[in-house]
Amino acid sequence: MRLTLLEPRTLRLIAPLLLLAASTWGCQDPPSADNGSGDGDGDGDTSGDGDGDEGDESPQIICMPGETRCADLDTLEICEPTGLSWEQVPCEGYEQCDPTITNVEGETITVCAGPCEKLEGSSSSEGCSFFTTSMYQATLPFNVTEKPSDAIVVGNPQIDRDATVELRFVSYGSNKEEVVQGPVVIPPGEQHTFLLDPEITIYQGEQDTSLFRSGVVYHAVSDLPVVAYLHAPYEGQNSNGSTLLLPENVMQSDYVVYSHGAWQTPNYFTVIALHDETTVTWRPSVETAGNGWPLDFVEANDSGTQKLNRYDNIRIDTSIKYDRLKCEQDLSGTVVSADKPIWLVSAVRVLRLPWCGGVVPGCNDVADTSCNYGSDFAMEQNLPLDYWGQQYVGPASPVRGAEQHYWRVFAGDDDITINVTPPQPGTPIHLDARGDWQEIVVPTGTDLLFEGNGAFMPVQYVTGHHDNANDTGSPAMIQMVPTAQFLDRYVFSTGKNYTQHYVQVIRESGTADVMLDGATVTGWSPVGDWEIATVLIAEGPHEIQSTGSFGIVQYGYSDFISAEQNSAGYGYMGGMKAEVIFIP
What we know:
Elements: H1 8-26, E1 68-72, E2 75-79, E3 86-90, E4 96-102, E5 108-113, E6 127-133, E7 151-155, E8 163-170, E9 177-186, E10 191-195, E11 211-214, E12 217-232, E13 241-245, E14 254-256, E15 268-273, E16 278-283, E17 304-308, E18 312-317, E19 335-338, E20 342-352, E21 375-381, E22 389-394, E23 405-411, E24 416-421, E25 429-431, E26 437-442, E27 448-462, E28 476-479, E29 487-493, E30 500-508, E31 514-516, E32 519-520, E33 525-527, E34 530-537, E35 541-558, E36 568-573
Antiparallel strand pairs: 1-2, 2-3, 4-5, 6-12, 7-10, 7-12, 8-9, 8-12, 11-18, 12-13, 14-19, 15-18, 15-20, 16-17, 16-19, 20-21, 22-27, 23-26, 23-27, 24-25, 24-27, 27-28, 29-35, 30-34, 30-35, 31-32, 31-35, 33-34, 35-36
């Protein structure tokens, strides 16, 4: 496991001791001879033999100065500068003495380490360090006069320990974190909402090209593993998008962007650098904007690059240079890679499904009223390719009326074939290269099982309230979790101010009961060798568990009343393991 958040107190103790050790050993007098007649201590007598027994009065070196070891789980011992004794240092808080921690040089060391330092041994969507930056939204709803706040919602999944969490901010042009909220103590099973500064959100007309920034980054930090969600904005309205946030320790270097046609251009993806001297490369599926300050315009299927330091971030937008139709400004399948781990979010500024009222077939260039304001912002923090799998269960989003269900299936590797159960028109799906994708549209309430011969990702695109959906809900974009990454327990949280919240539960047929807030989940429907249950839940935090592994997906809907009281919707995966099951 790699040390990520080693307690500074421990490092401050060890470093000076190592320096003292070097000086102590470097100043030792050379041994003197007694011409063969003495005891080896250089005094010319024969009263001692220098081996530390009763006949030798010399002090005994028992350890290497600065050396560390565990006295017990709660106590670290550090060898004194003299090498003659051990100093005992109590571990603090949730720390325990651990002889298996790996430092940044790759060396195994013994230190007092807490749960956050041990995360790499049990990686999942629970973590101690989460990032986000401002999103690029569409125009504010016409009846909204003040910018709403985005929010990071943090939940404590611990059974019996409080988590202490603080929110830090890196201001524009800076690389220094400052605490702006907290620390706050979150009891087990509870949550806390950190509201973000609404002024950092960028709306249409404020930027018209790709963006490079240093700073404008939020960083949520905990002393115990927690779960985190980003809501942009926080409360349900027709410009809402939401995603499960993945912790820093599971970030990797290879991604494929999810996107869709742009009702309001541009669509985009955003990258945050987590390390200095990080080079990011993208091969866009369509031209991306840039003016050379410093981001360049990039042709479709060409490559763009940008070097970033920690807290630098780039937003890569589709370009209007060639006057492409809105529905063609689609970044789906753009391949992004870096030489160090990065954070990446895919976003559609206005997702409209199905397209409606258009003059150009498949595209739309008329007023939003033609679709009864059925558009919405959509985003998803992308799973790195390392966690993509070969089997997924795709539950249809909770049925609202007679809506359709849209899916795009993305290739994580070359030459991938995906079988779909039950079979659908256009399946099996064959994808030639990483980033290739195919869309399928299925009837109301159709659950799917996806199985492939290599790494791939199915993404569901929820339709708007105008899609025969009883004027309920709005578009969202939701990546699925491979069955190989399911957990046996989740603590999750809903969005706020939606009229309906759901959790969909996925388990293998015939396996153990699943308990949601202490009640047994019922109402299972089969798909292949798997089962799905859709459960209406109350707003707020929840706990769900079983003796076997299972998956969950969360949704929320509100109703369309009028243009002033528009519909809203969100959806995201509820959690996952983060085991490397594919090498990009």
